[in-house]
Amino acid sequence: MKQDLSDKRKDYSQNFINFSNLPENPLELFYNWYEVATESALIAEPYAMSLSTIGEDGFPRTRIVLLRELSQEGLVFYTNYESQKGKAIEKNKNVCLSFFWDKLEQQIILKGTIEKIDESKSDDYFHKRPVESQIGALVSQQSNIIGMDEDLDEKVKKLSKEWEGKVVPRPENWGGYLVKPVEIEFWQGRPSRLHDRVRYQLASSGTWKKERLAP
Ligand SMILES: Cc1cc2nc3c(=O)[nH]c(=O)nc-3n(C[C@H](O)[C@H](O)[C@H](O)COP(=O)(O)O)c2cc1C
């Protein structure tokens, strides 16, 4: 099996970064870009982001998770604390998030430190989810090995009956994480591969330093 992809390329020309008019805080820029991505309706799930963690084996591992809250504090997503990512995070709190909004020719890469959010906040979000998703979280020991013939739908049906009309408890191993950024890079595709990039880094004083990077 072989595929030659060497002639597959696209020229980027939709937008540019105005380096003379950048906000001091990168979360403001993130918010502006995110709003455009949402309003344009060009991106099916602008809140889908890749999360990279470093595993105990020393390898990075990347997977998609959904951004559920954005604030001055950082970015929140929800998952199983005992999944592969949960175990990796236990050992190493340095993570990377990235967004690729293809139709806008934009990429954002965010490095940060991660921590669990308050249990009460996880409870609130858990109970806001559709009840099927709540039951799903009870049923799935995320990232554990399961039998090829394991019938998850059957388990969901059984538990749905058991919990009918009652409040489904949030499993202790399910909840939110907050990623607090220390560096955010914004990338805007430009013609002839001369893309625009700006990187913000958090200084010890708590202020952000911004620098333009060569494409
Ligand atoms: C579009 C999309 C959204 C997803 N959202 C989440 C999410 O918010 N939380 C989550 O735990 N997994 C989510 N997943 C599944 C993860 O990518 C991954 O398979 C799962 O979390 C197990 O990862 P791990 O074994 O590395 O811990 C999503 C997958 C896709 C493709």
Question: Can you tell me about this structure?
Answer:
With about 220 residues, the chain is of the alpha+beta class. Strands 1, 2, 3, 4, 5, 6, 7, 8 and 9 form a nine-stranded antiparallel β-sheet that branches. The longest helix is centred in the N-terminal third of the chain and has 15 residues, at about 25-40. The chain contains five helices and nine strands, in the order H-E-E-E-E-H-E-E-H-H-H-E-E-E. The chain has a domain at about 25-120 and about 175-210: Roll (Pnp Oxidase, Chain A). Flavin mononucleotide binds next to strand 2, strand 4 and helix 2. Flavin mononucleotide (FMN) binds near residues 45, 65 and 79.
Helices and strands in order:
Blueprint: H1 26-40, E1 48-54, E2 60-66, E3 69-70, E4 75-80, H2 84-91, E5 94-101, E6 106-116, H3 119-128, H4 131-139, H5 152-163, E7 174-188, E8 196-202, E9 208-212
Antiparallel strand pairs: 1-2, 1-5, 3-4, 4-7, 5-6, 6-7, 7-8, 8-9
Helix pairs in contact: 4-5
Flavin mononucleotide binds next to β2, β4 and α2.
Structural key phrases:
215 residues, alpha+beta, Pnp Oxidase, Chain A, 9-stranded antiparallel beta sheet, 5 helices, binds flavin mononucleotide
